[in-house]
Automatic annotation (TrEMBL):
One of its GO terms (molecular function) is acyltransferase activity, transferring groups other than amino-acyl groups. This is Esterase family protein. The lineage of its organism: Bacteria, Bacillati, Actinomycetota, Actinomycetes, Mycobacteriales. It comes from Corynebacterium poyangense. It holds the Pfam family Esterase.
């Protein structure tokens, strides 16, 4: 073999090695979302490990609609599946953590399953809606709520790219305010949410007196102005965001609703009086509005499953119990065992 031939052979081998390395690098970059989804040990962009453990990441997601980033706690699917479960918080959601991993145990409940938990942080009294104006009366520090846009446009793009969550393979569940929002978002975006679950939500928000009750609740939760949410009492958006009136979008979805009686469970009578006084009427009223919603659903031919426990207050014992009870349903519908 000549020197020239030998050098040519070495050059071909070296070129092949370089090409292989470049190809591998390109695949790693192009498929970073899939890699992150299939490997829980990989942090997504803008993410850090959350203190709750169980592979939960705290991710900072850009929100041009809101004008500032929003933090989301994400637990990637165990085996890289593309199903997602959005868990929405209650009226007093904080900017510190989503309550499903603080007051409940969603992170350990789904840790061995092939579904990505998506738990947005913040949004107190927002009903996870796009508000028409600043949410509070403090106009020097305006609160710009564009939660529907974030949850249905901005966040899905981030989840698809970085955690492999399909935009059309999601369930959405929420408690109290979050239950109301889950029903609205599920009805308005059935292409995104195949399954909708409301735990003690308020599902008939335009009944007589509801505007006043919600006004008082929003003021008490932090000085929020209900007129900035959907406008005046006569604004059509109020009716477009009443779960009782926008059932049409749920015809092809798996729907579950629950609410307890407001009567304390036998082992809850030892709770502090203020918890009994607050938790009982809140849950009883949730039951009333949910029952009204079921009558509307039946009249419109919308199928659903229900659970109305004989005992239970508007508290995390109740909400956690419903999440545990519906876990098999969620995993069956989402094919995420």
């Amino acid at each position: 073999m000549s020197t020239k031939t030998g050098l040519r052979g070495l050059w071909k081998k070296a070129s092949a090695v370089v090409a292989a390395a470049v190809t591998a690098t390109s695949l790693m970059v192009a498929g970073s979302g899939t890699a992150a989804a299939a490997n829980r040990d990989v942090l997504g962009p803008g993410c850090v490990w959350d203190a709750v453990g169980f592979w939960v990441q705290r991710c900072t997601v850009d929100s041009p609609a809101t004008g500032h980033p929003i933090q989301v706690q994400i637990q990637p699917a165990k085996n890289g599946g593309n199903a997602g479960l959005y868990l929405l918080d209650g009226l007093r959601a904080t900017d510190a953590t989503n309550a499903w991993v603080n007051d409940s145990d969603a992170q350990s409940l789904f840790v061995d399953n092939n579904i990505t938990l998506v738990m947005p942080i913040g949004g107190a009294a927002s009903f996870y809606a796009d508000w028409e104006g600043p949410a509070t009366y403090d106009f020097n520090n305006p609160v710009n709520y564009k939660w529907e846009t974030f949850l249905t446009q901005e966040l899905p793009a981030y989840l698809e790219q970085n955690f492999g969550v399909a935009r059309n393979n999601n369930a959405i569940a929420g408690l109290s305010m979050g239950g109301t929002a889950a029903m609205n978002l599920g009805a308005k975006h059935p292409d995104q949410f195949r399954q909708v679950l409301s735990y003690s939500g308020y599902l008939a928000t335009t009944l007589p007196g509801m505007q006043t009750m919600m006004r008082v609740a929003l003021l008490d939760a932090g000085g929020f102005n209900i007129n900035a949410m959907y406008g005046s009492m006569l604004n059509p958006r109020r009716f477009q965001n009443d779960p009782m009136l926008n059932l049409g979008g749920l015809r092809n979805s798996d729907v579950f609703v629950s609410a307890a009686s407001g009567v304390p469970h036998p082992d809850e009578w030892s709770l502090p009086p203020n918890m009994l006084i607050a938790g009982s009427p809140l849950e009883a009223f949730s039951l009333y509005t949910t029952r009204v919603w079921t009558l509307s659903a039946q009249a419109q031919g919308v199928k659903y499953a229900e659970d109305f426990p004989a005992y239970g207050l508007h508290n995390w014992r109740n909400f956690t119990g419903e999440l545990h009870a519906t876990k098999p349903r969620i995993l069956d519908v989402m094919n995420a065992w």
